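Friendly challenge for the regulars: who can give me the structure tokens for this chain first? No prize, just bragging rights.
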Amino acid sequence: MSGTLALIGSGNVGGAIAKLAVDAGWTVVLSNSRGPETLAELVASLGDRATAATAEEAVAKSDLVVVSVPLLAYRNLPADQLAGKIVIDAINYYPQRDGDIAELESGELTESGLLQRALPGARVVKAFNNIVFRHLADLPRPSGSPDRATLPIAGDDESAKAEVTRLLDDLGFDALDYGTLADSWRSERDMPAYVAPYHEPAPEGLDLQEYAGWVYLTAAAAPASAEKISALLASATRETTAHEAVDISRF
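First reply, four minutes later:
Bragging rights claimed.
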């Protein structure tokens, strides 16, 4: 499988996904809130398969769209252009950055549910949100490799999830479908399947802030099997208080 992948948000996560896609033979079109000209260095580093555009232009050229922006920026997404598109939601909610969002705090909606409501014509699939960009870049393996990592996906549209599964396979990962958008809280921030399965054991004695810095700056990648991710997703509960979380998005 190959095609054109649009990135709305081209920071650490978007850049890592773009590099994997280019290496796998995909064409990528990158966009951000600051304009295509600010992406010239990243585009140059990715080679001939990469270009920069406005979000609207990127979506128009794409087969799949990855959204990797701060959560509140979902209000600025080109909803009309995204109608009918498969939208991969790599967003995480950090109250310290995004402010309190009552529907997320209460569990009334998941992050992806919020995005789907804002993009009623899109086919939203949750993916890429539970792994840091360095480990995403380090863990791809050929299909069938015993140490291939598994990434969870969730969505309401079965054909959309099948397309995202094929994309992940191209990028070097297995996919684990764990349900609908209503289930997608299981891979959100602070849940057992979030970040920790993909790195080496953490040093003892780290507080939350020290752990966050270690994960994003130092920790070596470690593959997580489908069995491990499945068990972690199943063990998730909603007991974590959002305000106790450390905003590791800033590292």
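The beta strands are 4-8, 27-31, 50-52, 64-67, 86-89, 123-126, 150-155, 174-177. Confidence is low (pLDDT under 50) at residues 241-251. Your move, everyone else.
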